[in-house]
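User: I'll paste a sequence; please echo it back and then give the predicted structure.

Assistant: Echoing your sequence first, then the prediction.
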Amino acid sequence: MPISVRLPPRVEQKLAEYCVSHRVTRSEAVKRALERMLEAHAGKQSPYDLGKEFFERNLRTKPKTDVARHSKRLLTEHFRGKRR
């Protein structure tokens, strides 16, 4: 499938230098770069997937206090050294 891409002059120059030094066509160099980029991205997990087990663990246990409702009091106690 043909694709047209506009490259900034400095990128085009670097691509030309790479192709000469590695003896590949511009098309081949771009194909290789895209394959590497897509392979690297395919193996990465989303931030949610990385922390999923911790999120699920916290959903099973109920918090001891309602942090949202008592946030001001809890922060005051924490910074004044009064802890439960």
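The mean pLDDT is 83. Residues 7-44 form one domain.
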